[in-house]
């Protein structure tokens, strides 16, 4: 049996709002932004795209994991300049801002609750809050 389509009508389509000169893949996981990062189940599922001042684009989960690692030293994995968020091409920008604010705070700095931000693990953060 052979099936021939005579017409195709897309019901819906979405794309990320990225700068014209940017690549359409994450600089860390190398997956297209219309696809999913390693931590997401569905495209666009609470994973906004983070754009740095250097114009490199990453999935929020990819860049947050990178910045949390010791070897990153808070620098862009592509050009090694200090990573500062330029924009969020996101549906969930508030969550992205909260996450990166915590990650970009210098290690050992305390937040308003007295808990240490940027500690190596959760146990150290709890220990610092108890003292």
Structural features, described:
Strand 1 and strand 2 (57-59) form a beta hairpin. The chain has helices at 60-68, 93-104, 122-130; strands spanning 49-52, 57-59, 85-89. By secondary structure, it is α+β, with helices and mostly antiparallel strands. The model is unreliable at 109-131 (pLDDT under 50). Helix 1 (60-68) runs parallel beside helix 2. Helix content is 23%, strand content 9%. This is Anaphase-promoting complex subunit 11. Residues 37-80 form the RING-type domain. One of its GO terms (biological process) is cell division. It comes from Elasticomyces elasticus.
Helices and strands, with pairings:
Elements lengths: L48 E4 L4 E3 H9 L16 E5 L3 H12 L17 H9 L1
Antiparallel strand pairs: 1-2, 1-3
Helix pairs in contact: 1-2
Pfam families: zf-ANAPC11
GO molecular function: cullin family protein binding; ligase activity; ubiquitin protein ligase activity; zinc ion binding
Protein name: Anaphase-promoting complex subunit 11
